[in-house]
Amino acid sequence: MRAILKAPLYKITLLATLAMASSCKNLEAREAISTRTSTTTDFSIERNKELYAAQEAQIEEIIAADSLDYQRSASGFYYTFIKQDSIITDRAKYGDRVTIEYNISSIDNQPIYTTSELSPLTKSLEQEYGIFKGLREGLKLMQENDEAIFYFPSYAAYGFYGDQDRIGINTPIRSRVKLLKIE
């Protein structure tokens, strides 16, 4: 009777060992079935390039007709100083707290938000909320008491969503800014 029990136990142990050994096979990464990107993404990229080019051309046409000398920033917006201190002092930088007066208008200078509605505003340049991307970058070009005019394409302003009040989606804007204080 003992011999009968040993034979099946031996076979079961052998089968279990073989099953475990064969399951330890190295896993290989599967290759992608398709390397093509989404057509929706491609369409969105093309649309954004066209939108940016149209806004850039519109802004360049407006500043070409203006008597002031505008410069293009590395971030893609245009600016000119109305008032700039001839003595170079510290410029606003990331982490600084700034107090500003500013307005926002359409690029053809129709008021959207007046200075009295928005000013004075005190914010840290590291805060995302309250100061849009282009304005944060523009303030880094300024010293205390400087005053400048900025033209921001929509991607540097309120972008795809607008401000969900008076500034529509994908709307380029103009802003006149005075930097009152850097802390």
What does this structure look like?
The protein has 183 residues and is of the alpha+beta class. It has a single domain (39-182), classed as Chitinase A, domain 3, CATH 3.10.50. It is built from 4 helices and 8 strands; from the N terminus they run ααβββββαβαββ. The chain has helices at 2-22, 39-65, 115-118, 133-139, and strands at residues 71-72, 78-83, 97-102, 104-106, 111-113, 121-124, 147-152, 173-182. Strands 1, 2, 3, 4, 5, 6, 7 and 8 form an 8-stranded antiparallel sheet that branches. A hairpin with a 5-residue loop joins β1 (71-72) and β2 (78-83). The longest helix has 27 residues, at 39-65. It starts with a helix and ends with a strand. The model has no long low-confidence stretch (mean pLDDT 86).
Summarize this structure as a short list of keywords or feature phrases.
183 residues; alpha+beta; Chitinase A, domain 3; eight-stranded antiparallel beta sheet; 4 helices; 32% helix; 22% strand; elongated; Motility-assoc_PPIase_GldI
